[in-house]
Design a protein that fits this description.
rod-shaped; c-terminal domain of poly(a) binding protein; 115 residues; mainly alpha
Length: 115
């Protein structure tokens, strides 16, 4: 009977995981058991934080809009309510960019939201 050498697939799997742990500290970059655990943790955090990043950005836009609107003696909530009342459908990302890059355009939007 012909001899079958095993392990090529397992070796490939381990090698792939160890390539992903490049840059980790201590044995977590070279010892398979520790590397596997570290990667599972890292991928979990990466997945979670891709979702969290979206809410963080939205919160930052809200802070920027609030800061810009305060110059016109208006609160953020009243500004958003004024936009909805006047059917101005701009999302927070665009409003924050306008407030930062084009204050003259943002000022006109604030005036419409006030009136």
């Amino acid at each position: 009977m012909v001899r079958v050498k095993r392990g090529t697939i397992a070796h490939k799997r381990r090698k792939h995981l160890l390539e992903n742990t490049k840059g980790f500290k201590w044995g977590r970059k070279s010892k398979f058991a520790q590397a596997k655990q570290a990667m599972q943790k890292a991928w979990t955090y990466a997945y979670r934080d891709r979702k969290k990043n979206k809410s963080n950005r939205r919160a930052l836009w809200q802070i920027n809009i609030n800061a810009a609107v305060r110059h016109f003696d208006l609160s953020y909530s009243k500004f958003i309510a004024g936009l909805k009342k006047n059917n101005i459908e701009l999302d927070r990302k665009v409003l924050a960019q306008l407030a930062q890059d084009k204050p003259e355009v943002f000022e006109k939007i604030v005036e419409k939201a006030k009136g």
